[in-house]
Predict the structure.
Amino acid sequence: MEESHITILIGFLILSAGLSRAVFSAYEVSPKPMNASVQQTISISLSTPLSEGIFFTNTTTCDGTQNPITKMDGWNNATRNYYETTACDGNSGYYVEAASTNQVNVKICHCACANLTCSEGLCVSGTDYLKTMCDSEGSPSDCVGFSNATTQGELSDTPDIGLTAVDDLGSDLYQVIGANVSAGSRVYLRYWLDPFPDSAPSGVYNTTYKIIAVEVSGDCGNCAC
Amino acid sequence: MKNRKVLLFLFFLLFLPDSTLSQVSIGITNYHIEDTVRIGQYYTRYIGVVNPGSYDVEVEVYFDCDNCKQPLTFLGNKIGEVKEIPEQYFRIGKDRLYVPNRTAEPGKIIPIYVTPKLLILKEAKIYTPESINFLLRVLSPSYPGYFSFLYPSLLIGSKNIKGRIVVSVTKSTFGSMGVTPAIACTFNLTIIGMPLGSLLLILAGLGIISFGIYKKLKVKKKRRKKKG
């Protein structure tokens, strides 16, 4: 047998050893690969006013009707911040409820997909906007602010948190509004808008707003819209 | 007469909407899946979508990945990103689903086909400098400022895909929805690929075979020369 034949034979032996190691390690009979931690249902529900949407009205009126905003420098109420009352002392109509059948607590988050963008009126559709995201969570201004609590009594009458959450790569993230919500509990919310830019032209401005729930130890993730 | 009034009142109460159930709701039967799989092992997982509310809903189902994007740097500057394609590891069987009201467990089933392979595709996205973008936009005004391409890669070692399977309501018999609810199941998949040792053995084997063939060809050439 020639020397070159031996070399090729050794090569084939090593190649087949490598292949068999790759193949057999891939098909190795090991503990079953399907290992679910738990199999239980989690559900959430939105209150009817929240399902309808968040409609900002002029100044701090609380009669439930939506009027065009003229107060561009300051906070403007959402129409159902004080539900079924004309006085500004009622309960909020906005809440998210964790189902009473949930076996684990849930984390509830929210996000706005983009700025409030012009859809009709004298503003340029798709170009003119009102800023939704705040520069920081605390002391919000020139953006959408909100308050949240697990009881109506604790719910603030002023926007103490700003809508914001962006990751290192600049992607929008969900913002936590209920970090640990037990079965049957609710997260109550109130919303306000401080329009920016103050010189935004007259018109109707929209965006998509989302609410998500995950198991309490999970992350709400990216605000994919 | 009084009894009739009481009966009428009770009858009226019967038809009052239930305050909890007359809401837009969405639920999921698995809230956390943690799997480890080796390449070549295929299986199907199932997730059920439930709807305890009183309105029918239409949902979209997608995977939201936490670690699929890695920045691509050159001399310390970010020039783009490399993106894992989750579909190379698993595929969600249904991306849209109609879930009638009061759908309880097991709910509407979504299959998740786990199909890890040795040879996978990745996507590279390269950002072009603004000076080039300006010129390119003269030719194509919609040029996004980057170009992307797919390239093949071997799954060596192990790979962890972290994220969540999101079930998001898109439509409802409630009517026009201002706020859309979603629910998510944490999904962490660890794929064990080809060990590095196997790759080195294969490469060594191929190298030795090539060397052997080269040597044989050389010997043949010498013999021909001698004969000639």
